[in-house]
Amino acid sequence: MAATEGEEEEVESPRFAPMISFDRDRHLTFLEMMYQLLPHPYQTQEINHLTLVYFVISGFHILNALERIDKIAVVNLVLSFQAHPRNKDEINNGQFYGFHGSRTSQFPPDDNGVLVHNCGHLASTYCALAILKIVGYDFSRIESEIILTSMKNLQHPDGSFMPIHIGAEKDLRFVYCAAAICSMLEDWSGMDKEKTKNYILNCQSYDGGFGLIPGSESHGGASYCAVASLRLMGYLEDNLLSKATQSSIIDVPMLLDWCLQRQAGDGGFQGRPNKPSDTCYAFWVWAVLKMLGGHKFIDSKALHGFLLTCQSEYGGFSKFPGELPDLYHSYYGYTAFSMMEEPGLNPLCVELGITDLYLLGI
């Protein structure tokens, strides 16, 4: 309604104003703040300390700014989380000698000042090895035999993996972590690949997507874990979509259709049907399409626009438009822009979720 004489017309201001481009400088400022000191709300995530470190260090590398960190300090921090058996006889005692997720998952030091082993965690071990790989640590110095031999204790007869040696769920998240660990260590003795493959195939649903466990609802993250694991294990070829007429161990056309339907009207990706678009699925779902060779079928311009509505004025990305940024969604916002070949960003190894060190000649 037009304002009457003597009155000012009230104009409703938008809740937020999307930025028009990817602001690398703001994102670097955001990561530097997280690198120096995590804000108070992250206290509840202390058990995932190493995962948060992974988001920061890998984020710096994707933004092509690894020189801003102290690599030696990072290496020392990561190695301090490693679990060690007291002797080689303990390797097959049922526990996993990988990396802890935090100090609180280690028992206090013994009389000699040595941190007593509690148990390693598959996701933390994936993050630890990814960080060490990013900063150029010499993997020949890692006791990979201990990690891989004890990792076998986490695999169940159906091929699935638990993240720790006792009392935890088992699903595709930890299958992926195990596959990524074997891939980075270049040694597949830590799993029964055939059993793992069969478990993954049993997780593909009637609609083409993958659930976290057989018979569960298809999910964007689970679909990524399934396809990336099969790729790392060598069961899926490059440019699979162009070879879909040939035999494949997964239903490629159905999976392609399911993934393409996850792009919503606002340009973003949802993790499941009837869910809102979420920044992180710009990686999880688009990465599946990328591995299949079907990423060219999405509306990349619309996705770009959606992500910019989630880009914070403080740097970083939020889960939904207009909210405050967090490390998790910021990291997967960076990976998404890397896949979109944003200028100034390093290319991504989609299967491992980190910078493509091979393309960089590292």
Description:
The structure is a single chain. The chain has helices at 24-36, 49-62, 71-79, 122-134, 144-151, 172-185, 193-202, 220-232, 252-260, 281-292, 300-309, 327-339; strands spanning 348-349, 354-355. It is an all-alpha fold and 362 residues long. The protein has a two-stranded antiparallel sheet with strand order 1-2. Helix 6 (172-185) packs parallel to helix 8 and helix 8 (220-232) packs across helix 10. The radius of gyration is 22 Å and the shape is globular. The model is unreliable at 1-16 (pLDDT under 50).
Mean pLDDT level: 90
Biggest sheet strand order reads 1-2
> Would you count the extended β strands for me?
2
Secondary structure tally, helices:
12
Write a compact overview of the structure shown.
The protein is an all-alpha fold and 362 residues long. It has twelve helices and two strands; from the N terminus they run ααααααααααααββ. Helix content is 38%, strand content 1%.
